[in-house]
Design brief:
The protein is mostly beta strands and 102 residues long. Helices cover 0% and strands 37% of the residues. The protein has no helices and 5 strands.
């Protein structure tokens, strides 16, 4: 991976880097592994990929990009609350279901 330049993307300070695969293919399909070069715009503060380009044989074949990014927004408390009309038992993570051995 080679850092190229500091830039802005989606209003965020970003670092554009260029990467080339080392070889080998994973056992799952992915457009990334059709590319012989990937260009990434990485958020300098968060390390999040803001944009990427996939290149093969000198031709651009895929671009995925964020157009706007916001972090640390306040979320309403009820967003993650159980609604009062939940039917049946509510199990906490890691708690075995009744009658089930784990």
């Amino acid at each position: 991976m080679t850092p190229e330049e500091e830039t802005l993307w989606a209003g965020r300070a970003a670092l554009r880097v260029r990467a080339r695969p080392k070889g080998g293919r994973p056992p799952f399909p992915s457009r990334f592994f059709d590319a012989d070069e990937v260009v990434l715009w990485m958020d300098q503060e968060r390390g999040v990929v803001l944009r990427y380009q996939l290149w093969a044989q000198g031709r651009l074949f895929q671009v995925i990009e964020a157009r706007a990014v916001e972090f640390d927004l306040p979320l309403p408390e009820e967003l993650f609350a159980f609604p009062p009309d939940v039917k049946g038992p509510v199990l906490l993570l890691g708690e075995p279901a009744e009658g089930k051995d784990r």
